[in-house]
């Protein structure tokens, strides 16, 4: 992982699976190559294997279960996603929360397998405690702004500033900001406030022209990083 860290979370949008999911991944790959900037895609579990074979950008799962191999119906394990070709996973997204003990188990197993982890938190107060588990990054997203079209940078910039202060208490863990990120200006402000990147979903996944949207976001991330 290297800033600017850019994560496009496919969630379960119409454009997240099948032919449209593949088209979306190809668009993001194209922009990644054109801008020489890594774009991580976090995709439905059923799409990991396909997309990992079709695109060169890193593919993440959206969630893994902390359970070991064995009798766990419906589980998606770190071993499953590794085998499918994932580079890592989001963990504890506010739409897919994980119990603390399971999170710790999952993280340890992910590390053992050489997988990257991004732990999501819904408030800045959890940034340092989660950072102590030593994921690659912590992604802070106020849930009320997720999918709202109103960005954390605009509506709650203090969440980013406080989260940046919190991440300084742990070493070698990046801080990413997200929720409602819509415009290049949202990204620019988030990075200028000290975040190492951004997470986005609806603005890209629901866009008429996703290429134009992601281009704007990525170019503003680069501009903000250059000015740091
Ligand atoms: O949850 C998010 C990314 O993980 C953010 O979602 P939106 O970009 O739709 O607000």
Overview in brief:
The protein is of the alpha/beta class and 228 residues long. The chain contains 10 helices and 8 strands.
Query: How many helical elements?
Result: 10
**Count of individual beta strands:** 8
Unreliable segments of 5+ consecutive residues? none
What is the chain-wise order of helices and strands? Answer: EHEHEHEHEHEHHEHEHH
CATH homologous superfamily assignment: Aldolase class I
Number of domains: 1
Q: Rough shape?
A: globular
Task: Give me the secondary-structure topology.
Blueprint: E1 5-9, H1 18-35, E2 39-43, H2 48-54, E3 59-61, H3 78-84, E4 88-91, H4 100-112, E5 116-121, H5 127-131, E6 137-140, H6 152-155, H7 157-167, E7 174-178, H8 184-192, E8 197-200, H9 202-205, H10 210-227
Parallel strand pairs: 1-2, 1-8, 2-3, 3-4, 4-5, 5-6, 6-7, 7-8
Helix pairs in contact: 1-10, 8-10
The protein binds 1,3-dihydroxyacetonephosphate.
Written account of the structure:
Belongs to the triosephosphate isomerase family. The protein is an alpha/beta fold and 228 residues long. It has helices at residues 18-35, 48-54, 78-84, 100-112, 127-131, 152-155, 157-167, 184-192, 202-205, 210-227; strands spanning 5-9, 39-43, 59-61, 88-91, 116-121, 137-140, 174-178, 197-200. It has ten helices and eight strands. It is globular and about 50 Å long. It has one domain: Aldolase class I (TIM Barrel, Alpha-Beta Barrel), CATH 3.20.20. Helix 1 (18-35) runs parallel beside helix 10 and helix 8 (184-192) packs parallel to helix 10 (210-227). Helix 8 (184-192) links the parallel strand 7 and strand 8. The site of 1,3-dihydroxyacetonephosphate has 14 residues, from strand 8 and helix 9. 1,3-dihydroxyacetonephosphate (13P) binds at residues 9, 93, 141, 146-147, 178-181, 199-203.
């Amino acid at each position: 992982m290297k800033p600017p860290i850019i994560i496009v979370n496919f969630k379960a949008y119409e454009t997240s699976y099948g032919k449209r999911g593949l088209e979306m991944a190809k668009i993001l790959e194209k922009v990644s190559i054109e801008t020489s900037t890594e774009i991580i895609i976090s995709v439905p579990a059923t799409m990991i294997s396909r997309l990992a074979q079709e695109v060169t950008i890193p593919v993440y799962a959206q969630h893994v279960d902390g359970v070991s191999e064995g009798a766990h119906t419906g589980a998606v394990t770190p071993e499953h996603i590794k085998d499918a070709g994932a580079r890592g996973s989001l963990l504890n997204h506010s739409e897919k929360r994980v119990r603390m003990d399971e999170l710790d188990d999952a993280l340890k197993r992910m590390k053992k397998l050489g997988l990257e982890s991004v732990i999501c938190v819904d408030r800045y107060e959890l940034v340092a405690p989660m950072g102590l588990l030593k994921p690659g990054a912590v992604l802070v997203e106020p849930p009320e702004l997720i999918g709202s079209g109103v960005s954390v940078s605009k509506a709650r910039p203090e969440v980013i500033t406080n989260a940046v202060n919190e991440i300084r208490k742990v070493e070698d863990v990046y801080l990413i900001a997200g929720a409602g990120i819509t415009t290049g200006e949202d990204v620019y402000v988030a990075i200028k406030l000290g975040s190492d990147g951004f997470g986005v979903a609806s603005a890209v996944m629901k866009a008429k022209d996703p290429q134009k949207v992601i281009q704007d976001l990525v170019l503003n991330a680069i501009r903000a990083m250059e000015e740091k």
